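input
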Amino acid sequence: MLGNLDLTFFSWDLLAPYVVRGLIFSLWLTVVATIGGMVFGTILALMRLSGKKALDIPAAAYVNTMRSIPLVMVLLWFYLLIPFAIGRPIGAEMSAVITFVAFEAAYFSEIVRAGIQSIPKGQVNAGYALGMTYGQNMKHVVLPQAFRNMLPVFLTQTIILFQDTSLVYAIGAYDMLKGFETAGKNLGRPVEAYLLAAVLYFLMCLALSALVRRIQLKVQIIR
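output
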C-alpha cells in the first residue's frame, strides 16, 4: 500500500475547497471553547476556593465528573441528549461548541485553581490589610498574577483542545479532519488525504508549542 502513495497528486488549490471550511470551524471551535472554558473554569475555581460547601461540593463534583469521562463520550451525550431534552435538533456544530465549553471548563478550572494557590499568602493578606474585599482582592491582586503565571499552561491546554477538535468527526461535524476525509473520498486518495491531515495537525501544533516555549521564557524573566 505504501508503495502506491502519490502525495504529488495533491495541491492546495485541489484541497482548499474541502479543507478550508473545516479548518475555519476547527479554529473557531478552539477559540470559542478556550474563551468559554476560561470564563466558566474561573467561576468553578473560585467556587472551589470559596470555603463554602454549598459552592465547593457542586463545583468539585462537576470538575471530577467531567475529568473522569472521555471527551468523545461527553460529545455523544450532548449530541443525543440535548435535542431529546429540548425537543428539537441543534446541529452537530452547536453540540460540539456546548460540549467543548462544558468539558474544557473542568480542566481550565484546575489550572486557575492551581494558579491562584501559587500566589503567596502574604500578598493576599496585604490586600485585606488595605481594606479590600474578597472580590477586590481577587480582581486587583490575585487573578492578574495568577493568569500571568498560568499563561503557558493555558496555551498548552489550548493546543490539546485544538487536537481534540478532530473528535467532532464522531457526530458528523465538518472540521478539518472531515475536510481531508471528504477530499480523499472525492479525489480517490483517502490514505494520502489522512497522511496530509496528520502532517498539517503536526505542523500547526509544533508551531504553537514553540510559541508557548517563548512565552514561558518571557514569563520566567518577568518573575
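quick obs: The mean pLDDT is 86.
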